[in-house]
Design goal:
This protein has 248 residues and is α/β, with parallel strands linked by helices. The protein has a single domain (2-243), classed as Rossmann fold, CATH 3.40.50.620. The chain has twelve helices and four strands. Strands 3-2-1-4 form a four-stranded parallel β-sheet, with helices on both faces. Strand 1, helix 2 (32-45) and strand 2 (50-54) form a beta-alpha-beta unit. Helix 1 (2-19) packs across helix 2. The relative contact order is 0.16.
Length: 248
Amino acid sequence: MKELTQQVVNWTKETFDKLGKTDMVLGISGGKDSSVVAAIGVAALGKEHVHGVLLPCGIQKDISCSYKLVDHLGIDYDVQDIETLVKESLALVPGADKSYDAKTNVGARIRTNQIMVTAQTHGWLMANTCQRNEDVVGYATLWGDSVGSFSPLGMLTVSEVIEIGDDLGLPYELTHKTPIDGLQPLTDEEKLGFTYKELSDLIRFGIKGEHYDLIMQKFNANRFKLELIRLPKFDPHLPDYFKDNFGI
């Protein structure tokens, strides 16, 4: 795992060198993915070149985890409450405030917009924080958290993300935290209907578990997102069920 950690750190540094950039910015949710991407950025670029944006939508119950992360890494950060922007956006579309998915996805897109505005204001690169498990089943908002300038975790499973976070010395409660997007009450796994471990076992080992048909249903319904949005991604060159069988 230490070798994999060093590879993704080196890839990040090389990506910035190639583009002639020095600083990165990302949304800090307090979850494992953004925490690990921030830690990779610090290892690759130095903490003075990594900038966080905390984006609560009103009251965020776990925002203390976001503060814990930026304090642990010693990176600078900005706090932008998007609740008013979300309400105003929904109010412009009749009935949108009654749609569960509309309310959830508009928040994700507004978060991305704020990070992009921050990036362009300062000439920084915006980090994508999605990992392979989310991407293959479409658990990312199109033109929301699915975008960015580069993706360190896009080809890594959740279990690998956790191990890299542990290797980089992140607090256990951040790397092993139950994943939830903070925009609705369900955890990621509750909303998906299967565990990330089952999906990781399929990705890396081709193990078809109890919910294989549901996983493939979500993959087929959402693969257009991966085909539409092509980000520069760190590739660990490990077995990958979806890449090996479907070329994506």
